[in-house]
Design brief:
three-stranded antiparallel β-sheet, 2 helices, elongated
């Protein structure tokens, strides 16, 4: 339950400023080495923005919570960059249409 709550919080925080542009988000968790231990807890995040290719990030750490946090930090940055590019492209296109 704690893990599920942590992921829910990270999803809400990471997507707070782009929620309207997101069509889907999928989180994959795995233990690569199983009971052998080591740096092997993987968190993969796939975020789909409407009308764009999916953003996919993955992080592997010894602690699953750290892997989740780092993956969501990276997906949030990627999403903001993609949305900023989209806004810039839209404003440039609009300016060209209104140019004499």
């Amino acid at each position: 339950d704690g893990l599920r709550e942590h992921i829910s919080w990270r999803v809400a925080y990471a997507t707070a400023h782009g929620r309207d542009a997101i069509s889907r988000i999928v989180v994959h968790l795995s233990d690569i080495n199983g009971p052998r231990g080591g740096v092997d807890k993987r968190c993969g995040v796939e975020l789909r923005l409407k009308g764009a290719e999916p953003l996919i990030v993955e992080d592997v750490q010894a602690d699953l919570y750290v892997a989740i946090d780092r993956a969501f930090e990276r997906i949030e940055r990627s999403m903001h960059r993609r949305l900023a590019r989209r806004r810039n492209f839209t404003s440039i296109s609009a300016a060209r249409q209104h140019a004499p």
